[in-house]
Design goal:
The protein has 343 residues and is an alpha/beta fold. The chain is built from 15 helices and 13 strands. β12, α14 and β13 form a beta-alpha-beta unit.
């Protein structure tokens, strides 16, 4: 027997299109509030005329408030969003996308959030929220959570709340990497500290450069304070990490010309933990980094890889070709569809 949604798709497809549009408007307002109509129309790619009509309807249903500071979602609207989430995933086909992606990438599990973070900045917030929920489900009695840097990990930190863990669960956040010269707010140390602050838990930082020479590496890792943090990292039962575009990460690290040439000649498309991968998942270059390494991941119970956007599709697929068995991929609709479209 066909489900009600399947019947609606056949007999009332226009109704489902309107539902999806209004749901997306509500979601966008909830992430961007207070937000002006012009800003929202640009973010969603809708004309101001269409958006004005839809917002007036949502206001009449007491789902949004409109003030001089901008539009915001009401408590009724927020509750409706939560109730609609499962239904909208089925309507948009995201559930099926997850099944297909899990099979294609041979992963333990895949979580896909709606949208494309390349075009809709608030989608990164959804990635953060999805990762926070999955991380919470992974908690046991004693937990060490190793965290890398990047804007996506920063979004995960923003999604954490005081009810992240209960009194029976010990949680320690530890920076899995040193700094790589990017904005301080996106470095692992900063993100790790923010996660601890928002969840009311403890953290340990790793105040060392991310990339060093072999000589410096041998010296630094023997320092008692550094050695202690590295030991904690190796004991982590949960690892959160992003997946980078190879060339973007190489430039961020201010890679030397000869090494950049090696990355280019190797046709690297993805990067994680200082390893650069080609589309087949082969390591074409590796930098000497301090912190968590790829070889450490097979011993970790839960590895959560978070990355989204169509532009990251090749990087995600490249990394996943050499991922540890326990990896769960958390991505968005844009990247997922692009990966599935690739042969």
């Amino acid at each position: 027997m066909l489900s009600l949604i399947e019947v609606q798709k056949k007999l009332l497809p226009d109704l489902l299109i309107i539902m999806q549009r209004r749901y997306q408007i509500l979601r966008s307002i909830s992430f961007m509030e207070p937000v002006g109509r012009r800003t929202l129309s640009q973010a969603m790619g809708l004309s101001e005329r269409v958006l004005r009509s839809e917002v007036e309807f949502l206001k009449s249903q007491k789902l949004v408030d409109i003030k001089s500071s901008g539009m915001s979602i009401t408590k009724t609207g927020s509750k409706l969003l939560q109730e609609l989430e499962i239904m909208m995933r089925e309507i948009s086909g995201i559930n099926e996308i997850e099944v297909q992606l899990k099979k294609k990438l041979n992963l333990e599990d895949v979580i896909v959030v709606p949208g494309n973070s390349d075009e809709e900045p608030w989608v990164k917030n959804e990635l953060g929220r999805a990762c926070a929920l999955r991380m919470k489900a992974c908690l046991t009695g004693n937990n060490i959570i190793a965290v890398t840097g990047g804007t996506t990990m920063a979004a995960v930190a923003d999604a954490l709340t005081a009810d992240f863990s209960n009194d029976q669960q010990e949680v320690l956040f530890v920076a899995a990497r040193g700094g790589i010269g990017e904005d301080v707010e996106n470095q692992a140390n900063t993100i790790c500290a923010k996660m601890a602050e928002r969840s009311g838990r403890k953290h340990r930082v790793l105040y060392v450069p991310d990339q060093v020479s072999p000589e410096v590496y041998k010296s630094v890792v023997t320092e008692p304070s550094i050695k202690e943090v590295l030991t904690l990292i190796k004991q982590a039962n949960i690892v959160l990490h992003g997946i980078g575009d190879a060339l973007v990460m190489a430039k961020r690290r201010k890679t030397k010309d000869e090494e950049m040439e090696k990355i280019l000649q190797g046709h690297a498309v993805g990067e994680a933990f200082g390893y650069y991968f080609n589309e087949q998942g082969e390591v074409v270059h590796r930098v000497q980094t301090i912190g968590l390494h790829l070889k450490d991941l097979p011993h970790v119970e839960h590895v959560l890889a978070v990355a989204g956007g169509v532009s990251k599709a090749k990087a995600i697929k490249a990394y996943i070709n050499s991922k540890p068995k326990s990896t769960v991929l958390i991505t968005d609709e844009g990247a997922a569809k692009q990966i599935l479209a690739c042969s």
